[in-house]
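Long-time lurker, first post. I've been practising inverse folding by hand and with some scripts of my own, and I keep getting stuck on stretches where the structure tokens seem ambiguous. Below is the full token string for one chain I'm working on. Before anyone asks, I'm not after the true native sequence, just a reasonable design that respects the backbone. If someone could post their per-position residues I'd love to compare against what I wrote down in my notebook.
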């Protein structure tokens, strides 16, 4: 299958005159999503009422959509389930992995990991109260700190700030050599680059669907449990949907088989409908084509910005194979500069302390958008157009 990027761009509702380079934070609206979500409300919810759980298939959406995602990330069928938030799925996966290595006490991560993952690990360690501790090291030092003390290696494959990419297969292999398990956060990988969890030997993984996948704000996360752990993985959050027979309403918990045990509460049907519409687009896409085009566009973007904006310093790895599908630059007034860009129709975002971040999403971004972004950035920097009081007042969401 060869990806038709003219077709993919036509599938999205993008505001006129906007260059959207923030799909690594929140993807734009697919044109099919409003109708798909409306169909859940009318006729499904309106006419079927509670019967929609069975007749419209609502109850099984976390698993049917989990299988669709599994096919996109190299996971075995029946080993991905959708629901809840990414933080909750990281917590579940980490708790399950720690329980499988009860004699060990170290969770190893890196200082570039997304803070929520680290907060979850700290909170879980405190809850366990058995001496489990989180150890963070510089990203480039992770391999050297994999010892027989480590129970779980917990990493985000692509750094949310710089786009730096870990070698998932190599680090998973190294972790297994010392008897540790792995948990990979795919938040900035899924929909950005090829992922093959089974081939890499990953133990647990989690990811979100509102970034590159375009399932909408608050869209549900997913969790992967490798087949070899599926029957033994503890669930930590023993919600009724993860019960072997949820409608038996037993007072005691019996975990469902395989990854279904990682379901927690009632599925968010409207959000799952939005995800369904987004996956319809992705199933017409070859991720290898997306990756190749992302690299070409990113290289064009870096070359253009560096040639015209000496004030900006590349924060992302220079070699494309070492980064995800985003490009970041250091600038001391990065927040104000980003606000100036947004005011001129080029939307990226800012990450403290000084990073201007731009997502390169080929499904709806091409050479014209990249060139316009370069021109606008150059104008803002050359004219110090960011140096206005209104651009320096930080909003709650940056």
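-- Answer (accepted) --
I ran through it position by position. Result:
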């Amino acid at each position: 299958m060869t990806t038709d990027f003219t077709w993919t761009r036509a599938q999205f509702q993008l505001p006129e005159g906007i260059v959207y380079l923030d799909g690594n934070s929140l993807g734009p609206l697919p044109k099919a999503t409003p109708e798909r979500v409306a169909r859940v409300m009318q006729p499904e919810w309106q006419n079927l009422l509670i019967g929609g759980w069975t007749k419209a298939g609502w109850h099984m959406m976390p698993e049917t959509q989990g299988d669709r995602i599994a096919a996109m990330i190299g996971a075995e069928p029946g080993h991905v389930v959708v629901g809840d938030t990414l933080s909750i799925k990281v917590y579940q996966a980490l708790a399950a992995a720690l329980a499988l290595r009860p004699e060990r006490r170290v969770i190893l991560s890196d200082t570039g990991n997304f803070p929520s993952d680290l907060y979850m690990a700290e909170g879980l360690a405190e809850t366990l109260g058995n001496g489990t501790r989180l150890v963070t090291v510089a990203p480039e030092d992770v391999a050297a700190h994999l010892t027989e003390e480590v129970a779980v290696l917990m990493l985000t494959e692509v750094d949310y700030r710089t786009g730096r990419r870990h070698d998932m297969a190599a680090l998973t292999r190294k972790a297994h050599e010392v008897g540790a398990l792995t948990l990979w956060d795919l938040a900035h990988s899924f929909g950005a680059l090829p992922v093959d969890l089974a081939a890499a030997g990953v133990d647990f993984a989690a990811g979100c669907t509102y970034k590159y996948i375009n399932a909408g704000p608050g869209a549900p996360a997913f969790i992967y449990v490798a087949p070899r752990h599926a029957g033994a993985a503890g669930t930590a959050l023993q919600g009724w949907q993860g019960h072997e027979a949820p409608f038996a309403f037993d007072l005691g918990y019996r975990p469902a088989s395989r990854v279904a045990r990682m379901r927690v509460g009632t599925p968010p049907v409207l959000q799952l409908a939005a995800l369904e519409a987004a996956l319809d687009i992705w199933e017409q896409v070859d991720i290898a084509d997306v990756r190749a085009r992302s690299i070409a566009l990113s290289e064009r973007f870096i070359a253009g910005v560096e040639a015209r904006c000496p004030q900006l310093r590349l924060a992302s790895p220079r070699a494309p194979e070492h980064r995800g599908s985003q490009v970041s630059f250091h600038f001391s007034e990065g927040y104000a500069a980003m606000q100036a860009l947004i005011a001129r129709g080029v939307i990226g975002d800012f990450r403290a302390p000084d990073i201007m971040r731009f997502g390169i999403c080929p499904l709806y971004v091409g050479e014209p958008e990249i060139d316009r972004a370069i021109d606008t950035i150059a104008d803002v920097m050359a004219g110090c157009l960011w140096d206005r009081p209104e651009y320096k007042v930080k909003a709650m969401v940056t």
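A couple of notes from the structure itself: The mean pLDDT is 97. The two ends are 38 Å apart (CA to CA). Happy to go over any region you disagree with.
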